[in-house]
Specification:
single chain; 306 residues; globular
């Protein structure tokens, strides 16, 4: 008889347990989750990777000094790739977080693609619209900072004003990136809109900002280690390009190898992004339990009903 090693998300955890349970969950669910990511995202993968291939080949032409070989639609490809990248990100969030949502509902029971796909379709446009709204808000904040720097330039030297502007952007960006880390799980799990989700995320992270900041740094370093290992073939190709001479990069077998390794690296990094996404979901419940104790209230309510 197969034992169901269910990982309870809705509980408080310390730093080490958050990291450990992240990999425990991924090890137990990697095959069905990675398969779901691949099947659901494959149309976007194909179009995105086609664009990446064209982009990579043209970047090689730039390195080789062959600017006349660049197509006139090169910049249009960049814009399309940015849009596809947003869709790619939204699908990645929906697949991972909807998988976790169903996993919690079924207490670790088997999850099929037929179970996951309807949830992803239902959440896709809500997450997409909220992401666009988030970009708009962050854009307004960036404009406000630039305006403040321009105003400061009237009273201060230009160098000092630029320095203060860069410093302000770094501080504000670091704070918001940390405070808004759970925002997409809140959008999926609590079904909140962008302003409510932003306020909710900042609220539950408040008081645990430094803890969250440290957790993000550690888990992203771990993710980067995996990506760096997977990038060895890519940089090996770059080395071969340099060894054989940059003028021979285009029109050789190395061009095809470059594209394949570039696509593989992008794909692998995206698949392994389940690491920080899973940690984000675990930490969301960790913060909730410490601040609101919903599990405790549920147990008390159950006792009162007996």
């Amino acid at each position: 008889m197969e034992i169901n090693h269910y990982i309870e998300f809705q509980k408080a955890r310390d730093f080490g347990t958050l990291i450990g349970d992240t990999f425990d969950f991924i090890i137990k669910n990697f095959k069905p989750l990675a398969r779901s990511v691949l099947i659901i995202m494959i149309p976007n993968f194909l179009i995105l990777f086609l664009g990446l291939s064209i982009f990579g080949i043209n970047i090689m032409n730039i390195y080789a000094g062959k600017l006349d070989a660049m197509p006139s639609y090169f910049f249009a490809i960049i814009i399309i790739e940015m849009f596809l990248g947003i869709i790619y990100m939204v699908l990645l969030v929906c697949v991972n977080y909807d998988y976790i949502k169903i996993y919690m509902e079924r207490k670790g029971g088997a999850i099929s693609l037929g179970d996951l796909w309807p949830e992803v379709k239902r959440d896709f446009f809500r997450v997409l619209l909220n992401l666009v709204g988030l970009f708009f808000i962050l854009g307004l904040l960036t404009v406000a900072v630039i305006a403040a720097v321009a105003a400061a330039g009237i009273f201060l030297s230009e160098v000092l004003a630029v320095f203060l502007g860069i410093f302000a952007v770094l501080i504000l960006g670091t704070y918001l990136f940390t405070a808004l880390w759970p925002v997409f799980f809140i959008i999926v799990h609590e079904k909140k809109r962008v302003f409510s989700a932003l306020a909710r995320s900042i609220s539950i992270v408040a008081g645990k900002w430094w803890f969250t900041f440290g957790l993000i740094n550690v888990i992203m370093i771990i993710w980067m280690i995996f990506v760096m290992i997977a990038s060895i073939p890519y940089y090996a190709v770059i080395f071969l390009f340099s060894f054989h001479g940059i003028e021979n990069m285009n029109g050789t077998i190395f061009s095809a190898i470059f594209v394949v390794t570039y696509i593989f690296l992008t794909f692998f990094g995206s698949i392994m992004y389940m690491i920080p996404l899973t940690t984000g979901a675990l930490h969301y419940f960790n913060l909730r339990e410490r601040k609101e104790a919903p599990s405790l209230f549920a147990k008390v309510k159950n006792l009162e009903g007996q």
